[in-house]
Amino acid sequence: MPGWCGVTVLRFENVRKVFGPHVVLDDVSLDVPAHSVTVLIGASGSGKSTLLRCANLLETVDDGAIFLSGREITDPRVNVDEVRQKIGVVFQAYNLFPHLSVLDNITLAPRRVHGVARREAEDRALALLDRLGLRGKAADYPDRLSGGQQQRVAIVRALATDPTLLLLDEITAALDPELVGEVLNVVASLKDDGMTMVIATHEMGFAREVADQVCFLADGRVLERGSSTQLFGEPQEERTQQFLRRVSARS
């Protein structure tokens, strides 16, 4: 099989996913270039989260193919663990282990999955925590942290394995409004670093600010895609216009 290379980091080709009688993803094709931010927007149930779960092989596709750096990862011969080592994932639920300290939460995967020495894993974790303003929390347990701090730790944990791609699924949905900004600032800084990201979000202002490419999903299809300026400023599809009017009215 080909190695991990190529300008397009993530590619969906005619991806279809069905749960029972419900078509969740319907012929989705999408390219995510290296060092870019692709933002998925759309109403709940439009397929955003399922698309991310398929990208990380948490869900199997029923048709079509997904490629990571030129390699088909939906090929049944692919080593799923190898694929996941190259993808960092952050969900709206922090999913931190409550019985482990912040430092141990972050270093668990590098040590147990990647075989990184404890000292090396801890040095990288502490450097990342320092960058995100959390070094002083390294010995704390998750229940001692605010929601925003826990989500930042979850982001650090995803970055600790030096992933090729970062998937972020509604990472501010569980946060109090006053904590949303601190998490979004972290994501904006990752964009400045050139991290390749795919983000599902309901935060339209944030999407407008960070996205290189915005995709509006409806009924499991990418109904419209374009630059942030184009899609938010001059959306072409009526359903895109209706969606943006609704979210604007709620904000």
UniProtKB/TrEMBL annotation:
GO molecular-function terms, A-Z: ABC-type amino acid transporter activity; ATP binding; ATP hydrolysis activity
The entry's protein name is Amino acid ABC transporter ATP-binding protein
Task: Cite the source lineage.
Answer: Bacteria, Bacillati, Actinomycetota, Actinomycetes, Cryptosporangiales
State the organism named in the record: Cryptosporangium phraense
On whether Nuclease is a keyword of this UniProt record, the answer is: no
Query: Which residues are in coiled coils?
Result: none
User: Span of the secretion signal?
Assistant: none
Q: Where in the cell is it found?
A: Cell membrane
Membrane topology of this protein: Peripheral membrane protein
Concerning Pfam families, the annotation shows: ABC_tran
